[in-house]
Amino acid sequence: MYRLTTLGEFIIKNQADFPYAKGELSSLLSAIRLAAKVLNSQINKAGLVDDILGSIGEVNIQGEDQKKLDVYANELFVNALKARNQVCGIASEEEEKTIIFENEEGVNGKYIVLIDPIDGSSNIDVNVSIGTIFAIYRRLSPLGAPATLNDFLQPGRNQVAAGYVIYGSSTMLVFSSGNGVNGFTYDPSVGVFYLSHPNMCIPKSGNIYSINEGNYAFFSEPVKSYLDYCKREDNTSHRPYSGRYIGSMIADLHRTFLKGGIYMYPDSSIALHGKLRLLYECNPMAFLIEQAGGLASNGRQAILDIRPTEIHQRTPFYGGSEEMVTKLESMFRMSVN
Ligand code: P6P
User: Label partner for 150 (CA 20 to 30 A): which of 117, 189, 198, 244?
Assistant: First the structure.
């Protein structure tokens, strides 16, 4: 029988790749792994357990309807990370302010974690794949003191690790600590993540474009030009591209990792900076995309080079196959010239 490698074994085998103290990454990832397993069990029975579905009748800092599972997932990941005493602070989509751990262990924590506990939560009630996204940075402020805002406002290029969990037809944890991207599939019968997608690489080109075309009228001219380009008939009257949009970024990007393509959430006249958040959605996904050989841009600049100014700031996002993102960026360059 083929010898399967567990996530734990993989981390230990490869922790020499992690540029810091060996046990620290494994401790952080094991906290995320544990929370993901518990969350997975709740998501899988969400249709049966009425205290986990639906809204709590409040909105989060984003002004979005907070689902019970959003709040549950947020508490789960925050508590799991806090318990490992490696983390001095957390920023979460579900928390208006940063969470700073001021106890003895917290002020000596070397890492900052930014997290979107459940991305795509509006899909929970219709049984569409959702996900957790996380980004890990080394703190910039000195040990022994509480984390500062600057620790959280680092450019994405500084990430030491990032990943996502997709709760879909199967549950997968996909992460990188700077040496490529690896995917692990969860076997609930034994409660273990097994290495199923080693060295994930995004195809250099693809034929799938993923965007909410309902907003077409509000897009900028470069985005409209790119969409028109994707939908043109080529000289063989064969349509070279297909549109696919699940409405869950994690699901659309996971498909992009495996099959190639481009996922787009542009800015527009109704969403001046786009919808996706830079720190805990776009940066971790851009880190993974670049690690997998793709590109992630705001149309003019690599996502990872954007210098953040606010915890919940938004950015336009175009990510996926190198040739497709490059083509889109050429539309923006032409619009300037
Ligand atoms: P729209 C989910 O709320 C999310 O942040 C992404 O996961 C998803 O791709 C996008 O928003 C969907 O937004 O405006 O197309 O419904």
Answer: 117
